[in-house]
Predict the structure.
Amino acid sequence: MNPARIILAAALLAVPLLAAEEKNLLQNGAFDDQKNPLAGWTTDYAWTKNSHYVGNKDRITVNAGVAHMKSPGAAGVKLECIPIPFEPGFRYKATFKVKGGPYRIYFSGYKWRPDVQPHPNPEPEELRLIYKSKALAASSNSWDTESITLPGVKLSAAAKNHLKQVQFLTLYVWMLRDGQIDNVSITRIPDPEMKF
């Protein structure tokens, strides 16, 4: 077979994989929705009745397309993307710009609570947390571009068992002190090791 044809065939096969990796699964990862800059993000945790986070939504603002997180003290402040359907057979990667902290950023895996009838748009209070990925824990006085992956570590049998039950993922952002986050994207990459 002609070597040029082999190269062309390989390139054509690679294009769908590259396109799949580049599609951002997040709605409004740049915090630039004109009507609601925090569309696609959960900021209101009053449903938890946790006194540290009842007023959380008032501590997050968006200015010039950047989410500003103002911490009230030792409990910190948090932000989480709306649940994204989880598909086995893929590795998930989050990339973002972050400043401030100290912060912890990780993937959370959820399944439906047993008393909730599944539907297309789950609310956080309708889900049960069953998995947390390895967290990025750092702080920075300047903007850093960072990324994390799910799984991010070699999976134990127990971790695989939990991931088998995951139906939705979120990106969880927690700041101990004031911080900012922007340009968040979540992509998925085919990974045979993630087929359970």
Remarks:
- The chain has one domain: 3-194.
- The first helix runs from residue 3 to 22.
